[in-house]
Description:
Strand content: under 5%
Low-confidence stretches: none
Pfam families: PycTM (PF18967)
Keywords: Antiviral defense, Cell membrane, Membrane, Nucleotide-binding, Plasmid, Transmembrane, Transmembrane helix
Number of strands: 0
Radius of gyration: 23 Å
Shape: elongated
Mean pLDDT: 91
Number of helices: 5
Protein name: SpdB3-like
Structural class: mainly alpha
Helix content: over 70%
Largest sheet: none
Number of domains: 1
InterPro entries: PycTM_dom (IPR043760)
GO molecular function, one term: nucleotide binding
Amino acid sequence: MTTAPISHTDRNLDAACTAVASEISRTDSKASLLLAFNGAALAGLASIADHDLPTPVKVAGTLAVLALGTAAVLLLLVVRPNLSGDDRASFPYWARLRDDDDVRACMNSDTRAARIRVLSTIALAKFSRLRQAVNCTLAALGLLALAAVLALL
């Protein structure tokens, strides 16, 4: 029995599927770390919220809390699962099939291109939100630095 050689297209499709899935995993890991950081920063800020601070310090601190809160929402959207299943190439789609025969019929076609397209769209959305969250976190850190300077004056 001989097997057909694997084409460049097959190798590239397999590699792309693996690469995109890996990128999604990376965004989820980064988002989790940033969520922990932002949560700790918000907890620290909450612990000093009842202190009598000068108004400019309170304003900068409030803006920092808003920026951290915005970052946290963006990070939660990064880790929120996408269960649309409108791609014919993912487990949410397969879960909606009527029976085992429908699953087998779906497996008769090469869905790698669809999977790459859908996963790439998901990865791009996750990376965009992650980037926005990092920008908000950096803005919050700048505002906290400003608040610290203002507190020293």
